[in-house]
What does this fold into?
Amino acid sequence: MAANLLDVDNLSVSFTTEAGEARVLDAVSFSIARGETLGLVGESGCGKSVTSLALMRLLPQPSGHITGGDIRLDGDSLLKKSIRDMHAIRGPRIGMIFQDAMTALNPVKRIREQLKESLTLHGQKLSKAAIQARCIELLGDVGIPEPALRLDDYPHQLSGGMRQRVMIAMALAGDPDLLIADEPTTALDVTVQAQILSLIQSIQAAHGMAVIFITHDLGVVEPLCQRVAVMYAGRIVETAPAQALFRDPKHPYTQGLLNSIPRLDREPLTPLPTIEGLVPSALNMPNGCRFAPRCPRATDRCTAEAPSMQTTSDRTLACHEVSL
Amino acid sequence: MSLLKITDLSKRFPVKGGVLKRTLGEVHAVDRVSLTLEAGETLGIVGESGCGKSTLGKTLLQLTEVTDGRIEFEGVDITHRSRRALLPFRRDAQMVFQDAYEALNARHNVARILSEPFEIHGMPGPHDDRVLALLARVGLGADAFHRYPHEFSGGQRQRIGIARAIALAPKLLVCDEPVSALDVSVQSQIMNLLMDLQRERNLGMLFIAHDLAVVKHLSHRIAVMYLGQIVEVGPGDALFKRPKHPYTRALIDAIPVIDPDQAQPLKPLEGDVPSPINRPNGCAFASRCRFATDACRQTRPVLGPVDDKHQVACIRADEIDLSAF
It folds into this structure.
């Protein structure tokens, strides 16, 4: 058995668009140990959601395709799997929860039918009574009050937080080794966000599964993740243990990102540090380091040549100007 | 005299149902809200979705009809004025919206979008120089002049939205979640722009947002809303250091802290916001409040003073200790 649960090795993804080939992911590498939580952080368009879709082999067809690299689950390449084999992996091996539970759930089916689907779709043969019992158990596990009554509800009858709980219950139905949570709390209010985050925490502790937590919000990463990978314009620029990243960010982009967050302990009504400029378009990426056009420390070398990845035992960094 | 003073402002929406579309009840979106705003001051309004903060903004600008209460602008009662009589107020009070893409006409180029305020208020054209000055002020180049909204990024579109709002040199600016759709690196750019404009033009600003850290950074005073009511209002520092309402405390505790040295385990507030249709008799927050007593469920609390700047609507504010948990 391989040491890591998941290895993503130099993964590249392109989208064919009318305006040309968009290289959305460029040689992305990371790995996750069993039971570990990895935060995948970046701003819109950095490729974090595409990474998760690529892992599930769910890239939009026919425009999206994997152009290089490998994804290995327990040492076994997912890119060589047939559609049928992937079907057996989604659910029992890798579960996923999405940002917008209202669109991810089927609006015209009762919660019971949707949960039942995720229980039976992957070939489990269960009696009607067993399914009913398991559905109630799952809803109870995710903290839904009176689960037996909620089974007959439609998604629109539930609040946003409750819908997200149903999504989590569906992902848990297969008892996956790896859970991918793509911005699961972004659409929720802060108090509900805190409920969902602590739910994910406790479920992870109980099931011992690995979690990839994809978010744009560095604040939600800290309480949840052991390690963090920061993405910018389709590349990973830095990975580090969560505490080390927040205490001592190395990459100028990570530093800029952490600085520009409004914090409660910052003096109000003072100018906030910003990252000037805009994220480059995937159709027209800069040649060297992709952050160079916005980087306060960029040199000629940065604009000419992409930095290679520096690695130590627990951190990686892609920058010419800073060393680990 | 305050720039803006609203007294017992209410906005209720009828709930219709059945075959005959009879009125079955009312949604109390804004429920007897009173507040004041001075020139040069930013009042932040925070609350979770459905608390009525956006409706409050729209109602006080009279973009929707006022159900009850009174709005005074520079000491003059402007409640229930006709459209024509409201025109001078419309010029003095402007709004910045969350989604600039929806708020800008996709078929008009920037020149036309930014000329429109001048045309509506009957200023003689051409307006090109005014538009160019506006673009420069919000940090966009002159090359934006002939371009269309879809050609800009989210942050740039919000700059156009802000340029339109400041075109007529308003005295009051209502910003409804102006940065919540933006990435952090862009969000801080737009926040800086709003703070600069406010200082430079002595704007009275109402800043509506769900993100407490954003609101705290931009505001002189903050009002916390829950289910259509203001439950606590006061200077940002006092509110965050010594919150008096259990809901304010819960909101602060729910913010994830990015500093590992200050991080605390999450202490989520249980339950959901009650329906604004069948709102509880007593304190609206009682169903989720760990300090609630029978008296809380029966008596509706009103805003009372903590000190001369800080007010709270909680009948137990003096006896409970919120610093302890």
Summary: The radius of gyration of chain B is 21 Å. The first helix of chain B runs from residue 53 to 60.
